[in-house]
Design brief:
Order of helices and strands: HHHHEHEHEHEHEHEHHHHEHHHEE
Helix content: 40-55%
CATH architecture of the largest domain: 3-Layer(aba) Sandwich
Structural class: alpha/beta
Shape: globular
Strand order of the largest sheet: 3-2-1-4-5-6
CATH superfamily of the largest domain: 5'-nuclease
Number of helices: 16
Radius of gyration: 23 Å
CATH topology of the largest domain: Rossmann fold
Largest sheet: 6 strands, parallel
Distance between the termini: 29 Å
Length: 370
């Protein structure tokens, strides 16, 4: 069942716990679904499931697998603004390429890898990294600036449009690796073409990452940069009361510390993160309490868009979305109350709709945020 878990938890109406146990019992997975429909339905019925329910589940699961297989066949092109998002000094070009391709493997059939930079600028990428990227199949696109701005951006936009046109309206997927807001208008307009799926890999939440179908983060999702270790020992050494995540926009300025000569732990924590992951932006690292509200809303929107892209459904179990938020930032969302505050903020702001009750609560993005 593991390879169909994402599908089962997003079904609407949801599968009852009893039926989930039956599915686990017969070990229904992608391989098992290759069998004839009636044969699978009969086995489910023999284990206590109603026939119509079994037929509906099997039919939906087969349609889901077919859609996933189609998506894997859609051509995928990567357009990497290397000047904007660089390979960390301690990461080789080969490692960055392999991790990137592995992360994008479930999202399409990779047919094009373009990396854009100015070759005369040695600070962008060393000759060794360029050589490794080229050996890994990347097209190294030299974009001389000649004292002009946004040259690479314009070249990337043209190449993206030519890539889409080359498939004559057929489904395709583009992946943009950049932190530049100059691409936000292009991605917003591409949402009018349902056959074109868009992926953005960036270091921070911005307009570009908000206008795509799937948003990923360069540090955490691609390079697998670990979050900072537990800071409990440092807290004890400093003997300082660490401010909790604010509730109802409570300001942290009212928090009192044991020693007036010792600064709050948050700046120390940020300095640690910056030291460990110098290529990541401040927004990508743990954010300060004052930033939580906007940060949370952006993460929620990105998570729900990614689930919709992967599962083809607009509504998702609230518990599933909470789990995805926890994966994005375990430190910020380890507390269930913190995750519930994210949902409450989004609901009051008109970002999501919520239906159901108990364990069957589902959430969906409102039309303005799809």
């Amino acid at each position: 069942m593991e390879d169909l878990q994402d599908f089962f938890v997003t079904l609407n109406p949801p599968i009852s716990p009893a039926n989930l146990e039956i599915i686990k019992k017969i070990e229904l997975n992608i391989r098992a679904l290759k069998l004839p429909t009636q044969e699978i339905v009969q086995e489910l019925v023999e284990n206590g499931m109603y026939r119509l329910t079994a037929l509906d589940i099997v039919t939906s699961a087969k349609a889901y697998i077919e859609e996933q297989e189609k998506r894997l066949s859609y051509p995928l092109g990567i357009f990497w603004d290397v000047e904007n998002i660089r390979i960390p000094s301690k990461t080789s070009g080969e490692s960055a390429s392999n991790m990137l391709k592995q992360a994008l493997k479930p999202l399409g059939n990779l047919v094009l890898c373009n990396a854009y930079f100015e070759s005369s600028d040695m600070s962008t990428m060393t000759p060794e990294k360029r050589q490794k990227l080229q050996q890994c199949g990347w097209n190294l696109m030299d974009v001389p600036h000649l004292s002009k701005k946004e040259v690479a951006d314009k070249v990337i936009i043209v190449d993206i449009l030519l890539f889409i046109l080359s498939y004559s309206g057929q489904p395709c997927t583009i992946c943009l690796i950049s932190d530049d807001n100059d691409f936000s208008y292009l991605l917003a307009r591409l949402k009018s073409f349902p056959q074109v799926k868009t992926i953005v890999i960036s270091k921070s939440s911005n307009l570009t990452s908000m206008n795509c179908d799937v948003s990923m983060r360069w540090g955490i999702d691609i390079l697998k940069v670990p979050l900072a270790p537990n800071m409990e020992e440092e807290k004890k050494e400093l003997q300082v009361v660490v401010p909790d995540r604010p509730m109802n926009n409570e300001s942290t300025s009212s928090k009192k510390y044991n020693s007036p000569t010792i600064p709050p732990i948050i700046p120390t924590f940020m300095q640690y993160q910056t030291m460990m992951h110098a290529d990541l932006s401040d927004d990508e690292l743990s954010c300060s309490p004052q930033e939580y509200s906007e940060y949370d809303r952006n993460q929620l929107i990105k998570v729900m868009r990614r689930l919709s892209f992967l599962n083809g459904a607009r509504e998702h179990l609230k518990s599933l979305v909470g789990i995805e938020l926890l994966k994005v930032n375990p430190q910020a969302y380890s507390d269930k109350a913190a995750r519930n505050r994210v949902f409450d903020q989004a609901l009051s702001a008109g970002i999501i709709n919520q239906t159901g009750f108990g364990g069957t609560v589902t959430v969906s993005l409102t039309p303005n945020y799809l």
